[in-house]
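Worked example

This section walks through a single chain of length 201. The input is the sequence exactly as stored; nothing has been trimmed or padded.
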Amino acid sequence: MNNSKKKTRHFIRLLSTIVLILSLVFVYFLVVNLDIVDNPNALQELIGKDIALGALLFFSLQVIQVLIAPVPGGVMTVVGILAFGPVLGFLLDYLGILLGSWLLFRLVKTYGRSAIHLMISEEILSHYEEHFFGNYFRRLFIIVMLSPIGPADITVMLAGLSKMTDKQLMIILAICRPVSIISYSIFWIYGGHWLEQFVPF
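Given that input, the structure is written out below as tokens.
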């Protein structure tokens, strides 16, 4: 790998780390300082008229986190639901993930493996290709898109290397991603309360 690609990959990793840290700090602020689980309107009351700007900024971050593969998308998904409520939060998560996934897909379709190498190494890419590519790739792709914990962004990259079309990609994402978004958010937001009923803390 030449120096230019190395610098780009280091920059992407640094940016992904910063986004991840900011997301975790924001989640801590929402849960601990605002107690947003029991008071869902707390953040909206805090930001008041700037909720439109906040929603736009969050939507942009959701798109960016899809394009930067090392960022765990689930963290941003929970932030959206906590910050903007179940309806607006879901829409921002859903539309941001759809746009980000399509952009990532087109990036790989246009530039091939070199685009993926800016985010993950050839060793990691080869590992996923070995386990995912084959006659059952589309079925595996659907399963990953439905799963709340699957390697969704990397699988979208693999789809960019496959014969999958834009239309096929978007139909699968439009149907499957709501399942993963809702299930992941419900588990992390309300899972603690459910566990308290069975396990004393």
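What to look for: The chain has a mean pLDDT of 77.
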